[in-house]
Write a structure and sequence with these properties.
Elements: H1 5-15, E1 22-24, H2 31-40, E2 46-51, H3 59-70, E3 73-78, E4 81-85
Parallel strand pairs: 1-2
Antiparallel strand pairs: 2-4, 3-4
């Protein structure tokens, strides 16, 4: 899912108040870690992940791999913090309403 700059800014604002719910440690991305994030997207649409100092992998690479494996979108990577967004499949389960994309006509 491609996000517009307005949608990304909206999600960044929501993520500011979120607590980190996952920590990537020296084991980096294990299948169990990826599975845990996938399961979390069943209950949440926006999650924040922290990369610990003992992890030698680049946070941006970790974010891209997690987004690819879970079907999520990388909202932002700042320092050692990663924010991922995955829209709920059912409209009834959607808690986050993204701003509409205005199509500009020339």
């Amino acid at each position: 899912m491609d996000l517009t700059s307005k949608q990304r800014a909206h999600l960044k604002g929501l993520a500011m108040n979120l607590d980190t719910i996952f920590n990537v440690g020296k084991a980096s991305l294990t299948p169990e870690f990826t599975q845990g994030i996938s399961e979390t997207f069943n209950n949440r649409e926006l999650i924040k992940i922290s990369v610990l100092k003992n992890c030698i992998d680049d946070p941006r690479e970790i974010a891209n791999v997690l987004a690819d494996r879970t079907g999520a979108t990388v909202v932002q990577v700042i320092g050692k913090k990663i924010v991922l967004y995955k829209q709920a499949k059912d409209e009834a389960d959607r808690k986050i309403v993204l701003p509409k994309d205005k199509k500009q006509s020339i």
